[in-house]
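Whiteboard transcription, Tuesday session. T.W. wrote the structure tokens on the left side:
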């Protein structure tokens, strides 16, 4: 009598796991193919940044609204709609004839991917009411999601080597069809008869604030950071953020309940989210540029090299959970952030040796991956565990939004720092007589071409040295930034109190 129900639960779990695999792959596999994508679609350095930022900004825009929509219109129904749209968007990415279409398709892919992510949690929660079964289901979901994130770089590199870049996106077409069929057959429909109203004003204000900030950082050099147009964008973004805060404080059912920030474990863990996305995740966009432009690796070799950066994130989380249970998240999360920072400084050292290669970068990549593995799941468990069960969904939404917002802004910031470092190296070469350049505008355009891996008139050795200088500035920014947030997280958690509680627990145990 129970086998049909178990079979249906298995189909639903398979659908959720497949959809999480697709979402994870589209975060981690695309950075490995950006250089090939840029050459094929004749894009520039800014286009490459927006291929990633369109995905993250769109994902951020829908995260908080999706839960309300799913409660009102049905979790299974919304899950199915977004699986189908994600498949369509992926095929559109694979068929894109130019960067404008690619960026637009990536925006749709990010919006439907973010909605899928929220629906996955809702479907699993409803499909597995028994706590033991639900824990196992979420564990399987987390493992598959981690596989998508961890193996994405080598999958992207392998698909370029064996086929071509469109297949990184086109492969999701048939996967989406299979996932849709599994969800149709297995997932049970559910909705909340007391669903809240959609916070449209808050959602729009937050999305515009994030988009405006990323646009100002990315396009500011061309516009002139102090020009009236650029300053107008910056002021409008700040006003949108202010409107968002005011709206969330006044609506009856806010997307962001700011009262949760008074809970020290929640705020300390949220700083962990920001720390990971100021350092580890945005660097994934720029590491392939180093492997291609400085070390001269091909797509497949660069994808393999990236595995040292991502695979530790799959191995470490179970060990991190045991550490958190024994020593409390107030030690593990800041410790993970400091480990990521140590990895960044090791990568900076490894990239600056006389003859750098993958082996000189290996210790730093592994160290950063270990730090991410210590921090990632511990942050998720702490943010949701620090509040009541009724507010866990809202806490999870704030955590995910903080990740995506920080990621979008820091993709733009790291790009700005990379180009500024390359520009400084070229300017020095121009001053010392090693290179001729007409003006600052031409110099910056040349720096963006080098950063984007495009062919230039600059001598290859000079281009590699300039790119290396820019990359080392990025590593310095990420290392200092994540260490600063690690220290802030340690203070916010209240480490002295945590130490006393942990000591008491061990003494009683």
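and on the right, the sequence the group agreed on:
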């Amino acid at each position: 009598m129970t086998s049909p129900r178990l079979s249906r639960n298995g189909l639903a779990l398979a659908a959720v796991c497949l959809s999480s695999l697709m979402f994870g792959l589209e975060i981690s596999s695309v950075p490995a193919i950006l250089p090939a994508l840029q050459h094929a679609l004749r894009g520039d350095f800014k286009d490459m940044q927006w291929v990633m930022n369109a995905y993250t900004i769109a994902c951020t825009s829908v995260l908080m609204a999706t839960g309300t929509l799913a409660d009102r219109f049905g979790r299974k129904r919304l899950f199915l709609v977004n699986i189908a749209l994600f498949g369509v968007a992926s095929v559109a990415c694979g068929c894109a004839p130019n960067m404008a279409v690619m960026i637009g398709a990536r925006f749709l892919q990010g919006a439907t991917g973010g909605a899928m992510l929220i629906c996955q949690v809702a479907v699993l929660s409803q499909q597995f009411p028994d706590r033991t079964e639900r824990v196992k289901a979420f564990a399987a979901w987390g493992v598959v999601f981690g596989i998508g994130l961890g193996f994405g770089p080598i999958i992207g590199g392998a698909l370029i080597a064996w086929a071509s870049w469109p297949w990184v996106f086109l492969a999701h077409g048939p996967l989406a069809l299979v996932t849709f069929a599994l969800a149709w057959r297995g997932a049970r429909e559910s909705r909340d008869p007391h669903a809240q109203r959609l916070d449209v004003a808050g959602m729009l204000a937050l999305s515009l604030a994030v988009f405006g900030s990323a646009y100002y950082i990315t396009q500011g050099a061309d516009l002139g950071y102090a020009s009236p147009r650029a300053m107008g964008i910056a002021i409008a973004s700040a006003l949108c953020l202010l409107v968002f805060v005011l709206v969330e404080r006044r609506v009856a059912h806010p997307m962001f309940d700011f009262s949760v920030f008074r809970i020290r474990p929640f705020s300390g863990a949220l700083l962990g989210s920001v720390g990971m996305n100021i350092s580890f995740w945005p660097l994934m966009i720029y590491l392939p540029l180093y492997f291609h432009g400085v070390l001269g690796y091909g797509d497949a070799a660069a994808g393999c090299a990236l595995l040292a950066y991502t695979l530790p994130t799959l191995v470490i989380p179970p060990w991190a959970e045991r550490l958190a249970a024994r020593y409390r998240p107030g030690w593990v999360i800041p410790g993970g952030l400091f480990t990521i920072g140590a990895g960044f400084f090791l990568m900076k050292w490894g990239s600056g040796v006389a003859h750098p290669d993958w082996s000189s970068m290996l210790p730093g990549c592994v160290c950063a991956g270990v730090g991410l593995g210590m921090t990632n799941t511990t942050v998720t468990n702490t943010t949701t565990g620090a509040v009541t069960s009724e507010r866990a969904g809202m806490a999870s939404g704030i955590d995910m939004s903080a990740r995506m917002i920080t990621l979008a802004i820091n993709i733009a910031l790291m790009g700005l720092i990379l180009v500024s470092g390359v520009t400084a190296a070229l300017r020095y070469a121009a001053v010392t007589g090693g290179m001729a350049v007409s003006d600052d505008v031409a110099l910056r355009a040349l720096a963006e071409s080098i950063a984007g891996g495009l062919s230039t008139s600059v001598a290859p050795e000079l281009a590699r040295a300039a790119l290396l200088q820019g990359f080392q500035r990025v590593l310095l920014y990420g290392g200092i930034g994540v260490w600063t947030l690690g220290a802030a997280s340690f203070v916010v958690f209240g480490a002295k109190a945590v130490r006393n509680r942990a000591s008491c627990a061990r003494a009683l145990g």
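Someone added at the bottom: The chain has a mean pLDDT of 82.
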